[in-house]
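Exercise 7.
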Amino acid sequence: MDNLKFHPLSENIVTALMAKAQNNERQFFRMQVAYFIGTVAAQMHVHIQGWGSDKIPVNMYTLNLAPSGAGKGMSTGVLKGMLKPFYENFFDTTVPIVSDKTLTAEAAKRSGNKGTSEDDERAKLDKEYAELGAIPVAFDSVGSAAAIKQLRHKIQMTSLGSINLQIDEIGANLVGQTEALNTFIELYDLGIVLDKLIKSNKENLRTQKIDRNTPANMLLFGVPQKLFDGSNTEKEFYSMLSMGYARRCFFGLVDNVNQTTEQLTAEQLLEQMFNEDNDLLIAKTANDFARLADVAWANAIIKIEKPQCLKLIEYKMHCKVRANALPPHKDVEISEMEHRYFKVLKLAGAYAFTDFSPIITNDHLDYAIALAEDSGEAFSRIINPKRPYVRLAEYLMHSGTESTMSDLEEALPFMRGSQNHRNELIMMAGSWGIKNGILLSKAYVDNILFLSAKSIPETDLDKIICSYSFSETQGYNSKVMKAKHIAQLLKMPEKKEDTPAAYMHWLNHHVSDGYRSDSNIIPNFNMLVFDIDGTASLQFVQQIFKDYEYIIGTTKSHTETVHRFRLIFFSNYILSLNTEDYRSFMNSIMESLPIVVDDASNQRVKKWLTNPLGDVYVNHGKLFDVLPFIPKTAKNDEHKSTMLEQTNLDNLERWVLNNTGDGNRNKQLFKYAMILRDAGKSFDDIRNAVIVLNDKLKDKLPESELYTTVFYSLSKSMGV
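Solution. The predicted structure, written as tokens, is:
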């Protein structure tokens, strides 16, 4: 299905609508234009002949979903205006001429069957025809199936016209429309509805049946947020798809409106909205459509010849192969895929009619296939909707404000339910958000829960946030540096100018106005800096963190016997935290580290000194996962819970179990043994320490297994 091309005239109309509505979502307008083209052919009772024994009526069912602001009102108004000349010719000239011929023929038929006067039969028909009222261009609701039957009878007597249901908001009008929807299911294929035996009354007079099909069209608009709300409306909608609308409808789905106005000046916007070329196109198309209302095109037959039938069969087979690849439980998707060819046939007929062609060409089939595939992509997203927890996370992200539970229940009906239900959704939303760059936060005010979300961009090692100056408090240069240049910064030499500064001052945030104070700190950061002041050896730190991306720089007070240095990690995400949350965040990390860190490392405004005479060590590995430590998040709640469960462990034991391996106890305990070995411990001390840690575990290993695995490998590595 590569290199698919769309119907040229339709695409030109779509481009004009996009400009007028300032919306770049082409799919939305494609489906809308296809519907209106289909209705023109249906009103003229265009049929396709050559595919099987039956003549196939041309008609369109379209479901088009988009958020508010997509330009539905604007585009619908333009399209209705474009078709106004068609309908003027259609109702003023074509309908009277064709209906007169139809009624005359019907009167003659009834006269012959009954042996009555043709004039009498025609008078009865004229009276019946007038009592049935005018044929509406479209309607937005259906009172009953009887109303559809009455309109069908009028259309049958006319031999022109179609039943056109256009609903502006399906989410608000779906429930209670079961009878009407069932009727439209029957009407789609051949424009035929089976009669139901009901008692006649003034509103429902039993009339003599006229054997003629009645094309039906359907355009359903909807706002995804209102339709996919987890309520009865959503259930009814998916029931509607499963009962047969999946295979009958073309689908459009726009998740977010892509407005064009933000990049335009007022003058450019004015030119776009009232573009003369677009207006000329609409006017010319209107004139062309008016010509299609000519009597000569009434009940037109569009031929599909053998080569095009073969092409359509090939597409049908291609769809069948794809349908067979779907799992059996995806029965609605299978049905849509298997019947996609029939939608293509009807649309190709509409394209041929619009192009004044008596036959369906290969191009017409290609255009229809392109739209069907576009529709199929949208349908796949509709039938596989975002889970409620995904919608919750995205809602919080896009709302930009803190939301209470009552706010969420009003905006997202699926949030209604038990406390356990809501808690589960919040937890799952948090987990999904973390994987998709969204961070959910919780805050309590007077015991009321407030939820919010924000994006968390990933760290690029070529874009590390840093500031530096030769002064303690002022003149700071805020820079975005490559990680490898941070290593160079740590050894910056003394300033050569006349200044008492012997070292450069630096910090892991940007500052406004170059002045270092807490109020001037810009919250974004992606570098973690820890002071180690004689509490751990360089060798131990290098061993324990060998899997991480880090930089170590010794300070001016570092000695061979007392190791003092800065340990720098790069976070996997860029965070933005206020003073209080930053302190809590850093404290949480420091509590989890297997080494003792200077408490002052938890200050946002903390600055450090370079050391031109120091040693710098660089290691490449994974970035530090900061997500478990961000305050007021579900991930942090999980981390705290784990810490409480591990109060019997010391920091090193806890770190090894939580940050090494895949949970395999043998591997974790061996990792622990090797760390102790590299720290200079004896074999006996290591063995005893491993046994102690193993005894603390709920799923501890048999001591005999320790000797055959951990201690055996340890002895070989130590040569004992």
